[in-house]
Amino acid sequence: MESNKRGAFIVFEGCDRVGKSTQSNQLFERLKDKGVAVKKINFPNRSTIIGDVINRFLKNTEELSNEVIHLLFSANRWECISSIQADLMAGTTIICDRYAYSGVVYSVAKGLDFDWCWAPDLGLLKPDVVFYLKANPDQLASRDSFGNERYEKLELQRKVSELFDHFNERESSYWHQFDAFETKQELHSKISTITENLLLQVAEKPLERL
Ligand code: DGP
Ligand code: NA
Ligand code: NA
Description:
About 50% of the residues lie in helices and about 10% in strands. The chain is of the alpha/beta class. It is globular. The two termini are about 30 Å apart.
């Protein structure tokens, strides 16, 4: 039987290597174990044609201007949005690793204008909650495998971190900031509590757009 309750749209954001994948996977497993209908996705979605171009750019085998790659990252979200909406309306909760906020912060960190960067993402579905894992990039640099991809450079990560802080203030009603250096278990427990409360309320919350 189909549920008439929509799913929750949950986003994880933060700098490279803060533990977004670990926390989003743990939340996914927990909800699945509790019998919640849930899917895990991430952006960039490297499995589409646009995603393949993005992947080549990130692996440094493709050069594209800042503007072009920005619009491709946004298009990569737009090409997935109808399937996300269909899942949510069918009652499936979506856990999404990175979203439009990453889109803006990485491009602005490279020097593009904030409002120009935000514009193509206007109209995308708005998350019900954003879990922002915050860490000082200088401390993150010592974590495993920092530095393999294009953006994993300390100076850029510092700017990225400041821009995420800006979003955290601007979008404070649905953003929750966590210290990425808390233990995995502490983080998981706090994130789970907020999520479980959200799942109780989401039926009365209409889906909004950015
Ligand atoms: P990940 O697969 O989460 O490790 O992300 C790959 C890299 O791409 C990471 O350095 C962050 C960056 N990134 C993710 N989304 C966007 C976006 O929308 N725009 C830009 N410019 N960079 C992004
Ligand atoms: Na990364
Ligand atoms: Na908040």
